[in-house]
Amino acid sequence: MAAALLQVLPPGAILSDPEDTRPYECDGLAAYRQMPLIVVLPDSEAQIVAVLKLCHELQVPIVPRGAGTGLSGGAMPIADGVVLSTARLNRILRMDAYSRTAVVQPGVRNLAISDAAAQHGLYYAPDPSSQIACTIGGNVAENSGGVHCLKYGLTVHNVLRVRMVTIEGEVVELGSEALDAAGLDLLSVFIGSEGMLGIVTEVTVKLVPKPACARVIMASFNEVVAGCNAVAALIAAGIIPAGLEMMDQTSSRMVEPFVHAGYDTEAAAILLCEADGTAEEVEEEIARMSAVLQQAGASAIAVSQSEAERMKFWSGRKNAFPAAGRISPDYYCMDGTIPRKRLGQVLEGIAQMEAKYGLRCANVFHAGDGNLHPLILFNANIPDEFERAEAFGAEILALCVEVGGTITGEHGVGIEKINSMCAQFAPAELEAFFGVKRAFDPARLLNPDKAIPTLNRCAEFGKMRVSGGKLPFAYLPRF
Amino acid sequence: MAAALLQVLPPGAILSDPEDTRPYECDGLAAYRQMPLIVVLPDSEAQIVAVLKLCHELQVPIVPRGAGTGLSGGAMPIADGVVLSTARLNRILRMDAYSRTAVVQPGVRNLAISDAAAQHGLYYAPDPSSQIACTIGGNVAENSGGVHCLKYGLTVHNVLRVRMVTIEGEVVELGSEALDAAGLDLLSVFIGSEGMLGIVTEVTVKLVPKPACARVIMASFNEVVAGCNAVAALIAAGIIPAGLEMMDQTSSRMVEPFVHAGYDTEAAAILLCEADGTAEEVEEEIARMSAVLQQAGASAIAVSQSEAERMKFWSGRKNAFPAAGRISPDYYCMDGTIPRKRLGQVLEGIAQMEAKYGLRCANVFHAGDGNLHPLILFNANIPDEFERAEAFGAEILALCVEVGGTITGEHGVGIEKINSMCAQFAPAELEAFFGVKRAFDPARLLNPDKAIPTLNRCAEFGKMRVSGGKLPFAYLPRF
After folding, report:
1. What are the C-alpha distances in Å from A137 to residues A128, A195, B68?
2. Which residue in chain B has the smallest CA separation from A179?
3. Of B158, B306, B154, B281, nearest in space to B212 by CA
4. For chain B, what is the radius of gyration of the CA atoms?
5. Which of chain B's residues have a Cβ under 8 Å away from the Cβ of A367?
6. Which chain A positions have a beta carbon within 8 Å of B339's beta carbon?
7. Nearest CA in chain B to A169
């Protein structure tokens, strides 16, 4: 394989020594590891075309990889496969302030787009918390969100066009610079397809004007359910906050000693609620938000008085995951999304599960979107704790599906949640997914065995659940 | 076939007498007509499942039909096929003001949703000009827009979930009530698929709060290009108007004697620019818009002073098509969409084509979206005029594609623009569309020969263009 690749790539673009390929054995979900056969680092679309044609000819599977920050194992290698990294396609090709668009290669970092657009007063809206490191190619693969996606949308709402290469080496453009494109909306199906349909070579993103001003409210609630109802009340009042995040007491007490964000650790839950726009718009919206929050029973309300204080309020939320690592040896981050009106019901359900499994759970989440990130705290060195954490997590996801939600909001399915897909979708729906997969990649060479479970797999998983709820060893996270 | 259908449908749900099937021989594109074999009018999902299973077994093609208001012939029957009308599935199943959603059957009229939601102060945002008559099933099939879609989005942005039946009779749910769904985004690919992937049985739509107030500016420009630049300047100023429409002098002079909307018929172009929201928001936005328009060279600005005046300003725009019928025996309405920044360039191109083809063209369009509706005026009774109109139209669409746009904004491809798809897409892209089509309907029974041209067809069309630009007779509109 390496010899064949040398016909189409320069030697420096091929890694096969285990010392060189070791960094690629996992992505951000480090519990799942697998050394790849070879890693390739093409630096042009022509090289990607050549690699794909070669792999197609030799029937070698390919795992595409962006920056490797994904949290669901979507970029985990295959033992007899090639990892194709898009890291070297890292140029911003065009930046057009007039049409507010940028054309970038897949290896451009999310934040680098906003940095480059700043001179025009513009930025790229979706802001996953990994935005310093993650790249737009990976964002397209996972349909990434962020704390501002309630107002500004997910990746799919901020990308106009994708240029990609099929497994057969054909270059295809999806979408258009105009509002709508004729034909089937393959751009939307491609965004979030977790590397199963093709390799991105160019992305045309929308840019939006940087708001002149932003302020954030921190509101305290004596009951979690009251906080949840306040979220619904804000939306019902016709307000779309620029960010609407909630943390329960376990989370705020976990974070406060670490970050000193000034959180009310006596409150059962705190809500962070941001307004952005012109100074007048922000002032008016902050007043309206405060009134709704007060009406909804907030026990205290603080509004950031400076940009420094705004950043301080957000710093606690943004450091919740590292803070969890300080108070618990291990934690398991879930990513369920539910209809907003079900927030109270699901949080009560999680509280009951804490008692049932004898484990604590810190709830930090994008409340406005209904996107939960429960952090189940456990110690893998205590016998049985990991198994309980895992069963706890599966029960949370099952509850999300039950109330009309979904098993992933923004982290993707990857390898981690592939069995939960069997709970979410009926065979006819999985078959519809595979139909589209086959349309692009009938030989299943692109990121196989990720994201969509085979019906066979679901049947086996169903049997396993019946026989005791254990996952096969290969899919147990290894801490 | 009728006998077989009687096994699964009551007699009143089957029409086969030509007297009964005549109304179904065309949709809103009346130039294309074809009598169907049979029309069926199921009134439940179970009946739709039974009809599809039967047609699948007997390999009989099916043309789905909503209210028949489509403008691209997407619901034109097939001689040996069944037309499946969803008109009898016309119930609103659930209306939930708290989650701001409604679950409706496909035959519910677009405006009926807003009427039912009005008691909660909500409405369904997409507003095609046929909204009194058109149904949500057809809106899903065509991904319909409207004058407010710049701010509120197309159908795809306002639908959360679709329940549909595949050609094999399997019921599949696409999307979710949560912000995002796991798996491939088949909801987006289904919306706008022109009846080629399945039959809709339920649609969950988003509802939005009715704005407390709305006002519209009418701005006059002495040059069309100045008006186009004003559109860009508004967007560049960070303003997203609730509606942003432009009419050239041909259009305003065509409409004014008919509607008496108070249009400035001396202006080369007029812009209608709406603000909605609270009274304070509207006041502020109208002031900002007026400043930008003045800066962009508007020669006069009028702001609606009452709801009656606002409706009067819009009445001219909304009656542009009927007005065209008063001044010209025939007109041909195009539907190209281009990047906003190309508006001036394309309008200049159209002006040159008017001279080249010796025909007038009235330009009425959703300027904010870049969605053009040039109305080519001609008289089919004058020898050669129709052929010139047709060549004119094809050249407009070719120009739209050339500047990075698309051949349809909201009317769909149907039968009308199937050859233009060959100009828009490369063979690899068409093959990707067909791949998805095959995944759902390998035998091509659902609305065959619409929306996506076969490579064969494109090859023939290419040859025809080389040999003189004539379309085959079967696809000539018959006036």
Report:
1. 13, 9, 41
2. B369
3. B281
4. 23
5. none
6. 99, 177-178
7. B428
Report the distance separating Cα B96 and Cα B290, nearest Å.
Answer: 38
E strands present in A86-168: 92-96, 101-104, 122-123, 159-165
Topology of the domain covering B328-475: Alpha-Beta Plaits (3.30.70)
Q: Which of B98, B184, B240 to mutate to test the interface with A (most CBs of A within 10 A)?
A: B184
Per-residue pLDDT of chain A in tens (479 residues, 90 and over written 9): 889 999 999 999 999 999 999 999 999 887 789 999 999 999 999 999 999 999 999 999 999 999 999 989 999 999 999 999 999 999 999 999 888 999 999 999 999 999 999 999 999 999 988 888 999 999 999 999 888 888 999 999 999 999 999 999 999 999 988 777 788 999 999 999 999 999 999 999 999 999 989 999 999 999 999 999 999 899 888 899 999 999 999 999 999 988 899 999 999 999 999 999 989 889 999 999 999 999 999 999 999 999 999 989 988 888 888 788 888 888 888 889 998 889 999 999 999 999 999 999 999 889 888 999 999 999 988 989 988 998 899 899 999 999 989 998 888 999 988 888 988 898 999 999 999 999 999 999 999 999 999 888 888 876 554 333 333 333 333 33
* A232 vs A237: CA distance, rounded Å: 9
- How many alpha carbons lie under 13 Å from residue A455 in its C-beta half-sphere? 10
Question: Taking a C-beta distance cutoff of 8 angstroms, is the pair A140, A189 a contact?
Answer: no
CA A136 to mean position of chain CA atoms: 12
Q: Which two tokens stand for residue A180?
A: 């709508």
Nearest CA among A216, A331, A220 for reference residue A282: A216
Between A189, A421, A428, which is nearest B185 by CB?
Answer: A189
Q: How far is B451 from chain A (nearest CA, A)?
A: 7
Q: Are strands B82-85 and B208-209 parallel, antiparallel or unpaired?
A: unpaired
User: Does B209 contact A410 at a Cβ distance shorter than 8 Å?
Assistant: no
Q: How far is B71 from chain A (nearest CA, A)?
A: 15
* CATH classification number, A1-210, choose in 3.20.20.150, 3.20.20.60, 1.20.1440.230, 3.30.465.10: 3.30.465.10
CA B144 to chain centre: 5
| Pick among A179, A194, A204, A228 to test the B interface (most B CBs inside 10 A) | A179
The DSSP-derived string for B362-401 is: EEEEEGGGTEEEEEEEE-TTSTTHHHHHHHHHHHHHHHHH
CATH number of A323-464: 3.30.70.2740
- Return the residue of B nearest to A186 by Cα: B189
Instruction: Flag if B433 and A186 touch (Cβ within 8 Å).
Output: yes
Q: Which residues pair with B171 in a beta bridge?
A: B165
Contact B204, B161 (CB under 8 A): yes
Domain with CATH 3.30.70.2740 in chain B: 328-475
Gyration radius of chain A's alpha carbons: 23
Global ipTM: 0.72
Q: Which residue has 């205590």 as its token pair?
A: A382
Nearest CB among B183, B405, B452 relative to A183 is that of: B452
Q: Is residue A134 within 8 Å of A75, Cβ to Cβ?
A: no
- Compare CB distances from A341 to B99, B184, B425 and report the shortest one's residue: B99
| B138: its two tokens | 């057809």
Taking domain A213-318, whether its CATH number is 2.60.40.10 is answered by no
State whether B189 and A436 contact (CB < 8 Å). yes
Taking residue A21's Cβ as centre, other Cβ atoms within 10 Å add up to: 17
Residue span(s) of chain B under CATH 3.30.465.10 come to 1-210
* Residue entry with tokens 């501002």: A148
Q: Which of A371, A424, A12, A32 has the alpha carbon at shortest distance from B184?
A: A424
Cα separation of B396 and B383, whole Å? 22
Closest chain A residue by Cα to residue B451? A183
